[in-house]
Amino acid sequence: MAAHSSCDHPHDAAGTTAKAGGSSPVLRLVAGLGLLTVVPFLAGRLLYNPAVDGSTRLWTCPLLEATGVPCPACGATRSFVYFAQGDARFLDYNWMWLLIWGGLVAVLLLLLIHRLRERGRRSEALLGTNSLLGRAGSAAAAALRGRTWLAVALPFSLLIPAWLVALANVDAISAGIR
User: Fold this and answer.
1) How many C-beta atoms surround the C-beta of residue 103 within 10 A?
2) Do residues 60 and 54 touch, judged by C-beta distance below 8 A?
3) pTM to 2 decimals?
């Protein structure tokens, strides 16, 4: 039987054994953070059309067209486009999605920092019960257990702030799609 040495298996930056052909959790977090950070700005740059008064019209919201009431996502694309251009008109549209996007970037950044701090220590998987995300996920699962109505209502309640911003900016949003 061959002796097991510490050089038999490749290790990732966090000190955990990497699977052959797989990537480390740190690299996946960095890639996810990079994509989440860059893609909205890249899309904003590509969708900006200065020939049409610097505005964009990609599609029409069916709810807004049918009822005159915006959906929670109405104005989000234009808000990202103007934000990416450094144009303050992003405040005339659904800027709440910029806050949601910033929150997602912050969560990924915190997970990355947490993972990097584990470096050099014996660590459990990112979703393990003793990790940052594992503890929060376990607490959330315990709170939702047996409360199906809450599991269904929670995502909708998280959309309420975005819907309120869309309702507040319905005139600018409607003017931009007609």
Assistant:
1) 10
2) no
3) 0.64
